[in-house]
Amino acid sequence: MPPLEVGVSKQVTRREFLNLLGAAGGTAAALKAGSALGLLPHTAQAATLDLRAANPAKRKVAILGAGLSGLTVAYELSKVGYECTILESSHRPGGRVFTVRHGDLIDEIGNRQYCEFDDEPHMYFNAGAARIPSTHRNLLAYCKELEIDLEVFINENKTSFMQDPALNGGKPIRNIDYTTHTRGFLAELLAKSLSAGEMDQPFTDSEAETLMSLIRSFGDLNEDNLYKGSLRAGYASGGFLEHGVQKDIIAMSELLKTQMGSRFLNASEGDTGPMLFQAVGGMDKIIEGFTNHVGHQIHYRSMVNAVEVKDDGIDIAYDQDGTHHLLQADFCFNCIPSHIMTGITNNFPTQYVDALKYIRRGTAYKSAFQAKERFWEKEDIYGGISWMSNPSKQIWYPSAGMHKQKGIILGAYDYIDGKLHTAMTQEQRIEAHLTDGEKIHPNYRNQVEKPITIAWHRMNHMLGCSARWQRDSDGWTHEEEELYRVLQQPVNGRHYMIGDQVSMHSAWQESAVMSAQWALADFDQRLQA
Amino acid sequence: MLKTFLVFSLCMVCIGGTSAAESEREPFDDRYCTTCHGTDGRGNEGVQAPRLAGMEPWYLRRQLENFRADIRGVHAEDREGTAMRPMATKLTDESIDDIIDWISSWDYIPAEATIKGGDPLRGRGLYGGCAVCHGANATGNQSLGAPALAGQNDWYLVTQLKNFLAGYRGAHPDDTYGAQMRTMVSTLRNEAGILNVVSYINLLSR
């Protein structure tokens, strides 16, 4: 998650720093300051498309790929009278919005699996898209319009664990222990610098006093501005019928033994900060919401062979059932992954092809288990994520199905790379996740069964997770931005690349939706011109 | 009696339902090639998957069998090879036969030149050593186990030559032809030599 814009665009003065601190505390004055600095977005509103009705002579639209962006286009254009045909190379709609249930095929090339989870509504795994931030208003607007039930997705759970062999002798500690003590120690340090007069000079007495009170409250410091532990971390014993006994402090020197803190503390900020949602019953309910309207337009197992943009239309050659077919359309919206499109015959301009070739395919890896019993609930965990320093990285506890007998948990999520597990056989992958998970839940191996694994960059017809535009983590280069703009523009006013790949914030459903909406708005404007 | 019958019928439905669900499972075969290797196997630079159309059946078979037997695509630095190997691991002999038949049904269209910076004149001199096995026009020679090079994606040839040179390919003791290639490729010496020779191969046609 990129930092607040003010942090990267210019030096933050101490006064602004105070304002930012104040904003965290939620005071009205600081909020006003934040707004003046452009920190707060304007009133949230989803884009409204006001597309003109189709011209009967030019209403044939080819949509390549039944991913979320393709379905968005089909849905919107069908509303205004276009005749849409969706070609989908796989056997299912949704692309990387993929909910795995009993009997589903996971078509990872070289590692095909059928999911053997119990056949029950809550026994599913969102192998792709899993979280909807409340600020992703365009996606949420479709959820509302399509009457898709949402529920809260629990990203951070204070009772979940963090585990690192370097920390606490390898014994997992609770999120709440790490965060409470870290905040306490950070606050004590801040309070010391403030009292030493290093920070108070630019502040009025009243500001300094407010700041000190904020720091004290942030870390739960005592009247001497020292951190001596906090009941915020919960009780060692008692607390209800008997006096609560405070837990022992974990020393700062101990907390500093793990490198995980920096990742851990911002894991529930930005896009993954509260409030997050998921679709009730699986993220693909969103896809179902669209296919309820446009599902009949989808031709499955239809692999595009060639895209030829012409002056008077666009020809799509594709194979279905071992036969060559030709689809002639007036316009085309294409959400085929860029790295696959480069292997499909086309007559796109050189610069456009260069842009397609520039994008690197993302790698990502997930795994899930069926749990024979919801063992985490016995450890006070309901939803949320435990973090591990080992390669399996995370365990996700389901945000729904509380107190049912069984549940599906995520057993590994490598969102950065995934190559380590991808290189393993299915048996090796599972063994690795069991060994890693045992570090947190000692009886894990016996509590879980029916594993599935999914290496997104090996998935048939996808070969990648989210598009990676940036070669460098420092931000977009000028060249990258130019290529992005090239790819956003239509070829000959007829062919649009869409999907989260044509956004500056790939990996989110919102980006797929917004990319589709951008293309539709541009398309409509061109027709009006 | 009626109740018993109903319960029995419901059970039958349950059992029937389960087996129906099994048969409804999405079937699959091993014809995955075009996902990576592109339309009619013409190669896809986007995922660095080479042209298969026009590849000799005997060469395809040898490489698929090498991948399957962990002879090729095992070195961690061989990025493309390690991506390919798991695809081949589960192939049966029948699947390999089927894939080779399928590939031979695709039209061979020579690949476009894409690489920059090579000197074909210098490359011509270097190619002399290659020509012994691959032929003066790089059309290949089955009796020597040498595939055609002309018409192949140039970026793929560059990657493979680099891999041979670095020992990422051809180092396995059972990779007889790979070992020969490693010896030969040492005459190209470095990346500049590789670019030169591939830019010369780009001028040849089959």
Question: What features would you describe in this structure?
Answer:
The complex is a heterodimer of chains A (529) and B (206). Chain A is α/β, with parallel strands linked by helices. In chain A, the strands form nine sheets. A five-stranded parallel sheet of chain A has the order 14-2-1-18-27, covered by helices on one side. Chain A starts with a helix and ends with a helix. The relative contact order of chain A is 0.16. Chain B has 206 residues and is mainly alpha-helical. Chain B has two domains: 1-29, no CATH class; 31-201, Cytochrome c-like domain (Cytochrome Bc1 Complex, Chain D, domain 2, Orthogonal Bundle). Chain B has helices spanning 2-23, 33-37, 57-68, 79-89, 93-104, 120-134, 154-166, 176-185, 191-201. In chain B, α3 (57-68) runs antiparallel to α5 (93-104) and α6 (120-134) crosses α9 (191-201). The chains are: A alpha/beta (529), B mainly alpha (206). The A-B interface holds A 89, 91-92, 102-105, 107, 109-112, 114, 119, 303, 305-306, 338-345, 356-357, 361, 423, 458, 460-461, 463 and B 21-22, 24-26, 28, 32, 34-40, 42-47, 49, 82-83, 86-90.
